[in-house]
Amino acid sequence: MKNNHPMIQAKNLIFSYPAENSENQDNLNLILKNISLEIQKGSFTAILGHNGSGKSTLAKHMNAILIPDEGKMLVDGLDTCQEENLFAIRQKAGMVFQNPDNQIVATIVEEDVAFAPENLGVPPEEIRKRVDNALKSVKMYEYRNHAPTQLSGGQKQRVAIAGVIAMQPDCIILDEPTAMLDPQGRQEVMETILKLNQKYHITIILITHYMEEAALAERVVVIDNGEIILDDTPKKVFSQVDRMKKIGLAVPQVTELAWELNKAGYAISTEIMTEQECLTALEKLL
Fold first, then answer.
1. Contacts of 14 (CB under 8 A, 6+ apart)
2. Could you tell me the pTM of the whole model?
3. Contact, 38 vs 76, CB < 8 A?
4. The sheet that has 44-48: what strands, in order across it?
5. Is residue 88 helix, strand or coil?
6. What share of the chain is helix, strand, coil (3-state, %, to 5)?
7. DSSP per-residue string spanning 169-189
8. Contact in structure between 75 and 89 (CB atoms under 8 Å)
9. Which whole-number Å values give the CA distances from 51 to 60, 133, 175, 207, 220, in the listed order?
10. Helices (H) and strands (E) in the chain, counts
């Protein structure tokens, strides 16, 4: 029987860190305030927010690195608060972090990708298959015998993603995976993420501060000050330029251009997100 839980389900989730420099243990720094969110299987969701908004803290609840103070986080129906679920949760939801150097553990690329499945007790011949498939899916197979130190930032991040794919998770949470990469590396990683979602139907949750990356998702969730303030398609979220600017977030440049033209009295849609859409609209205007 196939279970029909959402992949990720937060129910009235509250989380706080103890306040720094405080003698009093009861002084808490409230990071997430009553967050409720459902993310369906096979979807691609981007989570946006400026630094300190709580977006990374929320991501860390999605594979039980952090546990809620109150409320629930369910991963494919499994409660992260129940310790006996942790192993299953971490197999279902893999995590990719900002700095690939902190995730790569071995001195040879293919050994690094084999590390997690080995720890899970996967049989050797199955590991071989998984490692090859994972490296092929991120276009790093020909580098399998290289040392990670010889790779570019984008290549290292793709190896880190391959390491998560080899665990065969249903969901991959990427916490600002392109923040330390050059534009070429960012593009490589984004192409990989789209392929994993579209070709392999892996649920993708991308935490980012790049609007152009978020625009590629099906859904954008905006967090500000520990609360969800917008949750819609990229078009609907980014067309609210005033609101995004108020909370200190940008929108894709072409969206801002359309918004400025619209404000100046030109009849142009404010839901423009790509350069091509912008070009088409401008041609009509001219």
1. 30, 32, 33, 34, 35, 68, 69, 70, 71
2. 0.91
3. no
4. 93-96, 171-175, 203-208, 44-48, 219-224, 227-232
5. helix
6. 40, 20, 35
7. -SEEEEESTTTTS-HHHHHHH
8. yes
9. 15, 35, 12, 11, 17
10. 11, 10
CA 37, CA 219: separation in Å to the nearest integer?
12
Biggest CA-to-CA distance, the chain: 65
In angstroms, what CA-CA distances link 17 with 14, 54, 57, 95?
11, 11, 10, 21
User: What DSSP line would sit under 93-137, residue for residue?
Assistant: EEEE-S-GGGT--SSSHHHHHHHHHHHTT--HHHHHHHHHHHHHH
**Token pair recorded at residue 175:** 């916490």
Query: Is the pLDDT score of 154 beyond 60?
Result: yes
Q: Using the predicted structure, report yes or no on whether residue 25 has a pLDDT greater than 80.
A: no
pLDDT digits (tens, 9 = 90+) for 80-120: 999 999 999 999 999 999 999 999 999 999 999 999 899 88
3-class DSSP assignment, residue 122 = coil
pLDDT for position 21? 63
Q: What phi and psi, each to the nearest 5 degrees, are found at residue 96?
A: -120, 130
Residue 144, classed as helix, strand or coil, is: coil
For 9, 210, 274, the CA distances from 72, given in Å and listed in that order, are 8, 29, 37
